[in-house]
Specification:
binds zinc ion, 40% strand, five-stranded antiparallel β-sheet
């Protein structure tokens, strides 16, 4: 997503764009995408600066670090960015910052739910799906 400075009116601008995750190299070993990235950017002018209120969403997929099951969730990242301007700058490319903001909030240990019970250490059964007969808790 690029913002051309001379296209930003005094009253500001709302930009919307769908970006492919591959275009931003957003997938990791752990985190996969199930949708495109939907980005809204509310752009306004400051004094020699551009203020961008960013709202980026996507459906992500990961394996739960406790029960190993794949799960999806909606990731919604809001951030406010500001860029100082001078006469040499004609546009701003938001993509590197969008990428950074997104990856900052990736879970280190994804969990399908806060109280995921994980797997039985004896038989490997997913304890979210009911008890097993091992008697382990
Ligand atoms: Zn889990
Ligand atoms: Zn068991």
């Amino acid at each position: 997503m690029k913002i051309f400075i001379n296209q930003v009116p005094a009253e500001g601008l709302l930009l919307e764009e769908e970006i492919k995750p591959s275009a931003l190299d957003l997938e990791t070993e752990l985190i996969k995408f199930r949708s495109n990235l939907k980005v809204r950017a509310q752009v306004s002018r400051g004094i020699n600066a551009l203020i961008v209120k960013l709202d980026a969403r996507a459906v992500l997929c990961a394996s739960c670090s406790r029960c190993l099951k794949d799960f999806e969730w909606e990731f919604d990242k809001k951030a406010q960015l500001s860029y100082s301007l001078d006469s040499s700058i004609t546009f701003i490319d938001l993509n590197p910052d969008i990428r950074e903001e997104f990856m900052l909030d990736y879970p280190v240990k994804p969990l399908c739910s806060e109280d995921c019970k994980g797997l039985c250490v004896k038989c490997g059964k997913n304890k979210n799906e009911g008890g097993c007969n091992c008697g382990s808790t």
